[in-house]
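Cross-check.
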Amino acid sequence: MSTHLPRLALTAGEPAGVGAELLIRLAATSLVADLVAITDRAFLERAAARCGITVDLHDDDGSAQTERRPGSLRVRHVALAVEEIPGQPDSRNARHVLETLTIAADGCMDGSYQAMVTAPLQKSTINEAGISFSGHTEFLATRANADVVMMLASPELRVALATTHLPLSAVSAAITRESLERTLRIVHAELRSKFGFERPRIAVLGINPHAGEGGHLGREEIDVVIPLLETLRREGMFLLGPLPADTAFVPVQRERYDAVLAMYHDQALPVLKSEAFDRTVNLTLGLPFIRTSVDHGTALDLAGSGRADPASLIAATRMAMDLIERRTSLA
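Predicted model, tokenized:
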């Protein structure tokens, strides 16, 4: 009996960036998945020409597929407002970007797609169009009416974030007992359901240097983090910490946990990206569907050159496929 391919919604992100070129290079691989690009068809044709790659683009009719030839890509056409100029974002295309995300997310929720994989977008361009927007993660959380957590994962390390796109001066106030508990519960549940850890081991970083050093370098650990960890441990969660961030990633420590919860964006991500930039995937935990993404930006300086490296998008697509397979096996 034939087996249907996993059906993935792909978004191209910022039209002036490298997203469409990455999608074309992804389509040229032999990945065994039904790839559906949600964007402007002519936009993809121009990207293919810039990459020097021949791609068979055909309209998506929603039918299940049992095979895909390398170089084949289905398209759900969403027109650009204006033709892209590589490297020069145009706020007139902001609504196009958001429409593609909406179609992909809604399609995942109604069963049209089994996961969505997103190329990078330019937040500033969307804000310049007069639309309040802080990122994929926050947009999808609102669309799905879900509490979510951002995680970046490589084959060697998984890092979840207690706060995401905040100025450093706002981090401490944003980490409350309630917000931290919500985050840890989501991470714990998703490590079990998505990654298959029966009893996930989570390392929780301190907010302050040396995890506060007993209150000498800040009281957030004493007042917020430690009491919560003690409560959740009594429920049976395996939680390490709070650990000083400067030593949490040394090899002997990494053997002790399955994932890290960092307190702010730049506390742990430099470690992850410096050692596995082309193999790191951005996941949104807590959504009622699978969403993965690249771990890099729009690379406006490379846009139009056809030289952008698709490694992170390929890794994101492979992870989406793995998560679909694991979910299917547990159903």
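The first strand starts at residue 7 and ends at 11. The chain has a mean pLDDT of 94. Passed to J.P. for a second look.
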